[in-house]
Every structure is written in structure tokens, then in C-alpha cells.
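TASK: fixed-backbone design
INPUT:
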């Protein structure tokens, strides 16, 4: 119907498409198969009886596609110690347990099993009642052993919407979760709580949002909540029953982190090898929305707090080399150089930060404390 409305095709009952694979072309005629009726809370559920094809190949069903009839479920995976929670609606399920009891059971499971990581999957959650979110956040904050970036993961995607968006924002604000997946479908400030309205002329029923929902910070005007680890679903992954989000989560926790590998290289005196690791990470699609700059800077400050000033300087120099246009990395380098008693080099680093951003507050304040002008020629 859409292609017909655009004037692209003349016959809505037969759409010829030229397809190519491995250099071979053929024409396939696509015909309407009827309306796709989604049953349950999973968009991939219930399509086998409508004439629609599912491109998934044989193999084990990935966690996110299991139990499509359920609004939410939790499953512990003994092989890797993952407690996986599919949370598809911030609502009460029509069948027991209710929302409150479900999360009580889930956290009881987390307390009783050898859980290595907790994964809360919001990628198919289009919302509900935001007041259910409080118990989720409280349950996580009451378990500091799980509330760590390497143990708590939240999967988001374009269908993370409305009350689910509020939950994601709450977890971003109050927990130490690592976000995985793709950008959310909601901005951080949005309208919700719709009311139905029947249009008088057409008789059509529409939903009209009635309440604005604001983020914690009134200055937050992001168009979406971005993942720390970007793992878009590809056709090849879906066909092969691979969940790229879970693949990235397991890879993140099974081996040393980027910061740990960079630290090891710096300790071994291999600054170039450490820089190569950071450059490679910066080029990975995985870090499309969150540069590894922040992780490396955090490593530098940890080394500085541990009174390992020279190693901290080496780490900050690597960050400045890989991300030379960031005023923050130069500001951090200046702080480490001053801590090591290298005043002139520290001043030069602060001034470089100000060349990139003349009003960079911490660099201005540092130079003011040192009693030197912001520029060398002043």
C-alpha cells in the first residue's frame, strides 16, 4: 500500500523485486500475506500462522525471544552465571506474579544463586506505569555487589519507550549500570499518560499525551539515551540466533577490560602498545556513542590516587595523543604533571586545554591558583 501510494508500483497484489546474491540476480515477486498480528509481548511471536516468514535459522532460541507470551520473566544461566531478566512492560502481568511480586522473586533469586552478572533487558519495553520503577532501583541499590559496571547491564533499543525510558534514566542516575544495545526511542524529556479522543468528523480514535515527563537534570535535552556499548541487531545475527547485546556483555566480563590492558602495557613500559589499544578501541563500532576516552581518563586518576604519578602521566599522555582535540584530557594531564612537581609542563598542558576551549573552567581555575596567565604571551 505504501509503495502504491508513492506511485512506485502499479499493482498492490504483486511487487517484483530484483535481488542479488553472490553476483547472481533474479526477480522475486512479493505478494501480500495478510496483516501481521502480534500475539504476546514479543514482536517476533505468533507470525507463523499469518503467512509471514521468519528468517531465523535452526538453533537455540536466544533469551530475548523466549516466552513471547510473558510480559516479564527471569532466567538464570548456570553456564556463565547470568541472571537474565526480560522486562517487556512496566505493568502488572495478566497472569501471576504481579509486577511487585515478580521483582521480589527476581531479587530473591539473585541473592540465592551464584550470580556473576544481572542483565535487565528493556529493548522491547514500550512502557506502562512508572511508579513500578522504584522497586527495581531500590532492589539494585540494596545489592552493591551487583551494582557495578562489570556486573549490572541494561539492554536498551528504539522500543525502550515511555515508562521504560524513565526506568532507564533512573538506572543511569542512581546505579552503576553499563548500558548495552542501541539508542532509546524516547528523548530524555517527553510527553506521556495518553488519553483517548474521538475525532468528531472522521470518528477515528487517537491518543493524546497529557503529562510531560522531565529528567532529573532540567538541562538534560538529549534526543535519546545512548548505550555505552553499541550492539545493533544485524540480519546475520538474527538469522544465526545470535544476540549481539549478550555477546558484548559476556565478552566485557570474561576478559580484562580495556583499562586493565592499557594499565598492564604502561606498567611494562610499552606506551606505544598501550596507545595502540586505545586507538583500536576508539575505532570500534562498539564505542560509537561512548568514547573510551572516559575509561582511560578514569584509569589515570586511579593511578594518581594510588600515588603512581609517572604511570598516571603516561596514561594521560596516551589519552591526549589519541584524543588531541579534547580539552578534558589536557586538563587531566596538567593535573598529573603538577602532582609530580613538573610545574612548567603542567602549565603548558592547562594552556593547551584552554586553546581548545577558552572557558574550560578547571583549567582556568588551576592557572589562577598557580598565579599565571591563561596564555603564554600574556
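OUTPUT:
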Amino acid at each position: 500500500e505504501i509503495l502504491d501510494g508513492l506511485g512506485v508500483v502499479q499493482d498492490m497484489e504483486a511487487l517484483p523485486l530484483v535481488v542479488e546474491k553472490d553476483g547472481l540476480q533474479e526477480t522475486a515477486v512479493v505478494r501480500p500475506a495478510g496483516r501481521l498480528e502480534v500475539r504476546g509481548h514479543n514482536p517476533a511471536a505468533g507470525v507463523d500462522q499469518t503467512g509471514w516468514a521468519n528468517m531465523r535459522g535452526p538453533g537455540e532460541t536466544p533469551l530475548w525471544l523466549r516466552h513471547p507470551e510473558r510480559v516479564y520473566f527471569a532466567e538464570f544461566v548456570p553456564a556463565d552465571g547470568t541472571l537474565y531478566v526480560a522486562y517487556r512492560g512496566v505493568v502488572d502481568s495478566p497472569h501471576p506474579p504481579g509486577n511487585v511480586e515478580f521483582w521480589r522473586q527476581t531479587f530473591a533469586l539473585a541473592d540465592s544463586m551464584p550470580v556473576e552478572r544481572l542483565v535487565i533487558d528493556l529493548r522491547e519495553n514500550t512502557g506502562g506505569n512508572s511508579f513500578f520503577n522504584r522497586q527495581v532501583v531500590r532492589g539494585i541499590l540494596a545489592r552493591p555487589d551487583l551494582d557495578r559496571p562489570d556486573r549490572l547491564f541494561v539492554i536498551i533499543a528504539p522500543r525502550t519507550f515511555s515508562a521504560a525510558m524513565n526506568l532507564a534514566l533512573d538506572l543511569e542516575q542512581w546505579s552503576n549500570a553499563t548500558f548495552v544495545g542501541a539508542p532509546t526511542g524516547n528523548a530524555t524529556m517527553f510527553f506521556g499518560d495518553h488519553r483517548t479522543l474521538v475525532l468528531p468528523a472522521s470518528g477515528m480514535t487517537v491518543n493524546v499525551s497529557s503529562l510531560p515527563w522531565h529528567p532529573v537534570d532540567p538541562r538534560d535535552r538529549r534526543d535519546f539515551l545512548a548505550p555505552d556499548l553499541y550492539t545493533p541487531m544485524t540480519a546475520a545475527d538474527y538469522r544465526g540466533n545470535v544476540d549481539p547485546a549478550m555477546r558484548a556483555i559476556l565478552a566485557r566480563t570474561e576478559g580484562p577490560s580495556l583499562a586493565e590492558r592499557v594499565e598492564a602495557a604502561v606498567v611494562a613500559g610499552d606506551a606505544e602498545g598501550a596507545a595502540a589499544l586505545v586507538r583500536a578501541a576508539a575505532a570500534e563500532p562498539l564505542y560509537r556513542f561512548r568514547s573510551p576516552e572516559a575509561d582511560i581518563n578514569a584509569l589515570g586518576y586511579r593511578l594518581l590516587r594510588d600515588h603512581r604519578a609517572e604511570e598516571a602521566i603516561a596514561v594521560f599522555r596516551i589519552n591526549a595523543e589519541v584524543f588531541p582535540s579534547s580539552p578534558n584530557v589536557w586538563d587531566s594531564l596538567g593535573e598529573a604533571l603538577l602532582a609530580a612537581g613538573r610545574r612548567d609542563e603542567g602549565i603548558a598542558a592547562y594552556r593547551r586545554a584552554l586553546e581548545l576551549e577558552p572557558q574550560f573552567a578547571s583549567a582556568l581555575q588551576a592557572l589562577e591558583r598557580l598565579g599565571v596567565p591563561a596564555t603564554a604571551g600574556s
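COMMENT: The two ends are 69 Å apart (CA to CA).
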